[in-house]
Design brief:
Blueprint lengths: L7 H15 E2 L2 E2 L3 H13 L6 E4 L6 H10 L8 E5 L5 H9 L16 H4 L4 E5 L6 H13 L1 E3 L6 E3 L3 E6 L3 H6 L5 H7 L2 E4 L10 H16 L5 E2 L1 H9 L5 H15 L4 E2 L6 H13 L4 H16 L4 H7 L4 H11 L6
Parallel strand pairs: 3-8, 3-9, 4-5, 5-8, 10-11
Antiparallel strand pairs: 1-2, 6-7
Helix pairs in contact: 1-9, 6-8, 9-11, 10-12, 12-13, 13-14, 14-15
Length: 334
């Protein structure tokens, strides 16, 4: 769990190691689940197959879509991204298929849609589960027939665009509730790729941490070359509801707080520090006693084992502190 210090030359070597052994484009991972994803990516990228990427927020779905496009015969074509959750139904339909002048209030000129922009390239529909049933019908037509009309128009447009979609929702459950078309669901899910949550691939955390150390050292022109064992333990024990994106933000936070070469627990967000202590003491036979011992140890270490100052931090008398140290079996150097 401990990341040893490494010099700039080691960083270059590590970067090459990550690039060569653990990545497909910018995707980092050595966990067996990620290797399964890499294998599937290598198989699907050269084809025209429609891909559905499933996974929680922050698991890297856009990176996967980028990797598929840039490793495909369409890599010279455009890669067009649309966040379906960010637009209302009317705006999304216009964004996807374009519109003609006068189609609605404010349509002062013809507009080319994203599907036209993606002709001979790839279109990535992120959060596809947020598309309304009305727009789903039009999307199904594009997938099946490769054609559509602009909003307010009558001329049929032909398009050759590979479609990659992503969602953090359970589309099958949405189909059962009547919220998503079954025919569209199976048309999108020709090749499904499920990205595991970071809590399911914790053995990737150390290499991801090193990847982000390298990244932020370059971006911030810093030389943070190490992370202490206690800090790494906090990162390993956390469940990451925000997944890889959250880990990246935690490391960025630590870079802002760190003034030296080593990231320590105090450089990480306070809620993460507190969570680490609570989870550790809750796993002991006597959680309350363990928590008290943790607090006394922290005060002693922070004050350089100056008992008077430590007692002041803990809002107790020096005599009470001495008694609790003996009863809890606290010894200097532990």
């Amino acid at each position: 769990r401990y990341l040893k210090p490494y010099a700039p030359t080691d960083i270059r070597e590590l970067k090459e190691e990550i690039k060569g052994r653990y990545t497909f484009e910018k995707i980092v991972g050595k966990n067996y689940r990620m290797h399964e994803v890499f294998e599937l990516l290598r198989e699907v990228a050269p084809t025209k197959a429609t891909v559905l990427i499933e996974g929680e927020t922050g698991t890297g779905k856009e990176l996967i879509a980028n990797a598929i496009h840039h490793n495909s015969p369409r890599s010279e074509g455009a890669f067009i991204k649309v966040n379906c959750a960010a637009l209302s139904e009317g705006l999304l339909e216009s964004e996807l298929f374009g519109h003609v002048k006068g189609a609605f209030t404010g349509a002062i000129s013809d507009k080319v849609g994203r599907f036209e922009m993606a002709d001979n390239g790839t279109i990535f529909l992120d959060e596809v589960g947020d598309i309304t049933l009305h727009t789903q019908v039009k999307l199904l037509r594009v997938l099946q027939e490769g054609e559509f009309e602009r909003v307010g128009g009558t001329k049929t447009q032909k398009v050759d665009a590979r479609v990659i979609t992503a969602t953090n929702k359970d589309l099958k459950a949405m189909v059962e509730r009547g919220e998503f078309r079954e025919d569209l669901f199976y048309r999108l899910k020709v090749v499904p790729i499920r990205l595991p949550a970071l809590r399911e691939r914790k053995d990737d955390i150390p290499i991801l941490v090193r990847y982000f150390l390298d990244k932020f050292n370059r971006e911030m022109k810093m030389e943070v070359t190490n992370i202490s064992a206690p800090a790494m333990e906090l990162l390993m024990d956390y469940d990451y509801p925000g997944n890889i994106r959250e880990l990246e933000h935690l490391i960025e936070h630590a870079f802002v707080r760190c003034q030296g070469r080593t990231i320590n627990p105090e450089h990480l967000p306070k809620d993460l520090q507190a969570r680490g202590v609570i989870e550790r003491v809750m796993s002991t036979e006597e959680p309350l006693k363990s928590l008290e011992k943790e607090m006394i140890m922290k005060a002693l270490v922070e004050t350089g084992w100056k008992y008077g100052e430590a007692a002041g931090k803990l809002r107790m008398s020096r005599t009470t502190l001495w008694r609790r140290i003996r009863e809890l079996g606290i010894e200097k150097g532990l």
